[in-house]
Amino acid sequence: MRSPSLSHAFLVLVGAAVVVAGNPLVTSKSYQATVSGDNLMKHAEKLSQYSKINDANTRAFGTIGHNKTIEYIKSSLDKTGFYDTYLDTFQYLYSDGTAALSVANVTYEIAWLTYGPGGDVNAPLVLANNLGCTQNDFPTAIAGNIALISRGNCSFSDKVALSGAAGAVGAIIYNNENGPLAGGGTLGTDFNPLGPYVPTGIVSGSDGKALISAVEVSDKLIGNLHVVATNENRTTSNVIATSKSGDQNNIVMSGGHTDSVPAGPGINDNGSGSMSILELALQLSHFRIKNAVRFGFWTAEEFGLVGSDHYVAGLSEAERNKIALYLNFDMVASPNFGYFIYDGDGNAFNITGPPGSDHIEKTFENFFASAGVKSAPTEFNGRSDYGPFLDVGIPAGGLFTGAEGNKTAEEAAWWGGQANVAYDVCYHRACDTIDNLNLPAWVQNSKAIAHSIATYAVSLDGIPRQAQRTLIPRIALPHDRRRHQACGHEVLAS
């Protein structure tokens, strides 16, 4: 069925490409003119509603809120009649949890370790010997008690599994530096052959020293460790939409992830990027294009670029070579924003993308310059959904408005906002709600996205069309290393 927007149009075959006759050829100016702050906010309101189902305040992959997000995207695209759409569905291991610790009625800050089991433990603390990396490091007195173990020399997984093998009912790892473990921690997998996992968490080095001193003067220092955890395989989907018109051997692709972290609704991260491209995908149906345009709405990015990597790894060489370039949009409405462009030519950060990435960077630079807006490069390190495309040599680029890093005084002079304050103080937190969006920045970036799509949908001049190289995909990495790469957020396993 034809979309109402195509009621006066028809499809004709010209060479190898299908074009929509009767619609104007897309241009940067006309496509930018379709960008509406009201429409962007309507999409954001939908995502906000989905995040609140059952008072969950999240759209993490596999949740009802995220499943509703996927349904909303696909149904909206299908109504245009402009795209061939499908759900790229698979299973992946979901893990989320919290930990709480009190010892002798004193509360300690403790971080849960990803893939650790839940449970309530009320038992004395017993010191493990050395670094808890061999079975001999666990005295018989640990059986039935909570093992207190230093970080170092071997993985958290081995320490916890050996604790379980020694009969411990819980484990507390303390950092080998005074402060807490930066970036969170993980057991890396939900199974270790050395022994069964027990409820566990990690405390700061200074708290660890305090606990050691208390254990040494008390025969029965009782600890209460409370862990709530979910570890399960969940079914989830990417949404892939390719225009029916345009040269199908020269595909201009853009994408952004649709999931949030478990801790919050993710309306900026990455409701902003994914809803920018949804709105632009809907508006593109009013235009004619020369090159096919494809949109990828990725799932499980927060667990290590899982959705985009699943998609790229599943492409044949012939299908990969049809993708001329990939444009990524992850967080484009940060409240204390900067206008950052991925450093495709490597001039700023010495990490160069595949040939053509430099042209994409320049396309964005020219747009902001013509709009009288200062832009700046950001590191092209593969830590968002463009990473799997880089791995197979597809030119890539995109925009970013900043996350947990602090805005500098120079940047505040360029863009306004507050110096020495995070670009997004609600990054990966419960407060990443609809109130966390900077609408003017979102509109400006959406116009930049429109400019890039319109430019390449008409001409691929400056983008080499050559066979891509094939590298080992991230899909082969273990869960802990995948999450280490998610959202530029460091996660440690030892």
Automatic annotation (TrEMBL):
Its EC number is 3.4.-.-. Residues 1-22 form the signal peptide. It is found in: Secreted. Pfam families: PA, Peptidase_M28. GO terms for cellular component: extracellular region. This is Peptide hydrolase. GO terms for molecular function: aminopeptidase activity; metal ion binding; metalloexopeptidase activity. It is an enzyme of class 3 (hydrolase). It comes from Macrolepiota fuliginosa MF-IS2. Monomer.
